[in-house]
Design a protein that fits this description.
The chain is α+β, with helices and mostly antiparallel strands. The protein is built from nine helices and eleven strands. Helices cover about 30% and strands about 25% of the residues.
C-alpha cells in the first residue's frame, strides 16, 4: 500500500504524468525524428565569359523524393514555356524606363526594391502613382513615396506575379512541395530548414520550377540532394555546360528568351 500511495501522491502533485508511457521490455524501438537543412548558394553564379549572375530574390522549392520519384513533375517543368518579364511588361504597354528599372536589379515586380525619389522623374508610372497618393496621404511627400508601388495599376504592380503564380499551379498540378524559400537580396542565399528525415538520409529534389531570367536567357535548376539528420547540405548553383564542373546531382536547362522590349529609355 505504501508504494501505491506514493504513486497516487506523485500523480496528484504533478511530479509524474498520468499519460506517460513506457516501452515494454522487448518492444519495438521507434527511430527518433531528426531534421536536416539545405542552403542554396546563388551568389556569383558562373555564366561563362567572365560573367557572374546573382540569383537574388528568386524562389526555390523542395520536393520529397529524387529524380525518379518526380519524373512527371520534371517533365512538366521542362515543357513549360513562359512569357518573359520584358515581354509581359511590353504587352501591357509599360514604358521602356520601367522595364529598364526592373532589369537593373533583375526585379520581377516594382515591389522588388525601394522606389527612390529620383526614380519618380525617370519612370512615368512611378510619377503618376506618386501624384495619385499625395492627396490620399495628406500631401505628405514621404508617405506618398513609400506607397508608390501600392498605387500603381494592378497589371503593373502584381500582374506578372499573378501570371507566374498561375504557371506554378499548372506545373505542380496539386503536388505539394515540402518547403519553398526565396533567396535573399544581398547574399542570394535560401535555406530549407527543419527538413524531417529518419535515422537514414532522405532524398529530395530542389528546383526553381519557373525559369530564372537573366538578360536574354532563362535557367532552370533541378538538383537531387541527400539530406541527413542534424546536417546542412550546401548547394552551390552554376550553369557550367561541362558535366565534370557542375554541382553534383544538378542539371540546368538554359533557353534563349524572346526579345520583346523595343523602346529605349530616354534619360531626363
Amino acid at each position: 500500500m505504501t508504494i501505491l500511495r506514493g504513486i497516487l501522491l506523485a500523480l496528484l502533485t504533478g511530479t509524474v504524468s498520468a499519460s506517460a508511457q513506457t516501452i515494454p521490455a522487448g518492444g519495438p524501438v521507434q527511430a527518433m525524428q531528426t531534421y536536416g537543412s539545405v542552403t542554396i548558394l546563388g551568389k556569383s553564379v558562373n555564366a561563362g565569359n567572365k560573367n557572374k549572375l546573382s540569383l537574388a530574390r528568386k524562389r526555390f522549392y523542395l520536393f520529397a523524393g529524387g529524380v525518379k520519384e518526380n519524373t512527371a513533375l520534371i517533365e512538366r517543368i521542362n515543357a513549360t514555356e513562359i512569357t518573359s518579364r520584358d515581354c509581359y511588361y511590353t504587352q501591357i504597354n509599360a514604358s521602356a524606363c520601367l522595364i529598364d528599372w526592373l532589369a537593373q536589379e533583375n526585379c520581377e515586380t516594382p515591389f522588388c526594391r525601394k522606389i527612390e525619389k529620383d526614380d519618380l522623374t525617370k519612370v512615368k508610372e512611378f510619377e503618376a502613382a506618386y501624384n495619385k497618393g499625395l492627396p490620399l496621404y495628406g500631401r505628405k511627400p514621404n508617405i506618398a513615396l513609400d506607397w508608390v508601388a501600392n498605387n500603381l495599376p494592378v497589371n503593373i504592380a502584381s500582374g506578372f506575379y499573378l501570371q507566374q503564380k498561375s504557371s506554378i499551379q499548372t506545373i505542380l498540378k496539386g503536388q505539394k512541395p515540402v518547403e519553398s524559400a526565396m533567396t535573399t537580396a544581398a547574399a542570394a542565399l535560401a535555406t530549407f530548414a527543419n527538413i524531417p528525415v529518419g535515422d537514414k538520409p532522405g532524398t529530395f529534389l530542389v528546383s526553381n520550377v519557373l525559369p530564372v531570367e537573366v538578360g536574354n536567357k532563362s535557367y532552370v535548376w533541378i538538383c537531387e540532394v541527400s539530406v541527413g539528420g542534424n546536417k546542412e547540405v550546401k548547394l552551390p548553383l552554376n550553369i557550367n555546360t561541362d558535366p565534370a564542373k557542375r554541382t553534383k546531382g544538378c542539371t540546368v536547362t538554359m533557353k534563349d528568351l524572346k526579345t520583346c522590349s523595343t523602346g529605349t529609355c530616354e534619360k531626363k
